[in-house]
Amino acid sequence: MLQHTSKLPNVGTTIFTVMSQLAAKENAINLSQGFPNFPSDPVLIEMVQQALRENYNQYAPMPGAMILREAIAEKMEYLYQRSYHPDTEIVVTAGATQAIFTIISAFVRPNDEVIIFTPAYDCYAPAVETHGGKVVPIQLQGKEFTVDWDEVRNSITSKTKMMIINTPHNPSGTVLSADDMLQLSKILENTNIILLSDEVYEHIIFDGAQHQSAALFPKLAERAFITASFGKTFHNTGWKMGYCVAPKPLMDEFKKVHQFNVFSVNHPMQIGVGTYLKNPENYLQLPAFFQEKRDFFLEAIKASRFTFTPSQGTYFQVLSYENITDEPDVEFAKRLTKEHKIASIPLSVFNTNNEDHKLLRFCFAKTEETLAKAADILNTI
């Protein structure tokens, strides 16, 4: 028998896999994993098919097809008034998760500290730990998931290498305000800390709010990697295509790792997405599109015993079940799946010390038919 010591001894099967497998086994409505159950725009599909026919079937350039990098640069300029050079400051990646892992690979060394905010998307901590870094978790406060900026300031040490933020935030559905970003900017000023800003839900934000990208704040932008996801934006998570932007000195280091763990990503899809992205309406209409789904779902469950604050962004809605049972959230989520045939994600698995606030996350990126069936079930509990 080979003998080895695991680099991730405490990591097992993710809660997303656990709940999706349970949903499939129980033939339950799956509102756990975050993926749409409706198709991508046929126009985008045709653009990818056209790229296939035009024989964009060999390796793309390492940082990505130029048509797509130029479209990303135009989008960043249009939305956030920030210029990123398509030659040197933009890289197309195999989804945002690959971008995040590559950023951490390029910069985090053994014993470096990385601040993350919990509940946190579950790829952050393992990537840090794989490279010998130490995760410094800061728990978001209460059911409003607010940031204690004094705690953030006091958590920074001489070993702090990086901070990871996520807005709009998965799993809570909250967003960082302009004031939050300004406070963060003041805290990081005059440090060598790299900011990794996970903005995969940048186009899914509600009630007239504006996404506060790190690109909007000069003192943050100069130290920030911003990661994004076309899978989240254009309803095709299975394509696994995203990108990141950063100032050239940071991106130079990113490329050194990217060229060896991925090199380049799907070429015809890059051509199709690059063409599709040229029309801003294809992403500007997304807030209204998803808010309609959020509002439909919340209206449908208003007679239930679940309580909620409407999601501010993402395509997730957090529901409190504190008026229903005292069960731990993982047990309750599994029981809902087995007995009531509806699957969700318990939030405690993302919290520091698995804090349990009796909250479940439901994905509303579904057809109205699916959401109506899910609401009928939730109203009976």
TrEMBL record:
Listed GO MF terms: kynurenine-oxoglutarate transaminase activity; pyridoxal phosphate binding
InterPro entries (alphabetical): Aminotransferase_I/II_large (IPR004839), Kynurenine-oxoglutarate_AT (IPR051326), PyrdxlP-dep_Trfase (IPR015424), PyrdxlP-dep_Trfase_major (IPR015421), PyrdxlP-dep_Trfase_small (IPR015422)
Pfam families in the record: Aminotran_1_2
Cofactor(s), names only, from the UniProt record: pyridoxal 5'-phosphate
Repeat in keyword set: no
GO CC aspect terms: cytoplasm
SUPFAM superfamilies: PLP-dependent transferases (SSF53383)
Sequence ranges assigned to domain Aminotransferase class I/classII large in this UniProt record: 27-377
Keyword terms: Aminotransferase, Pyridoxal phosphate, Transferase
Similarity-based family: Belongs to the class-I pyridoxal-phosphate-dependent aminotransferase family.
Name of the protein in its database record: Methionine aminotransferase
Organism of derivation: Kordia periserrulae
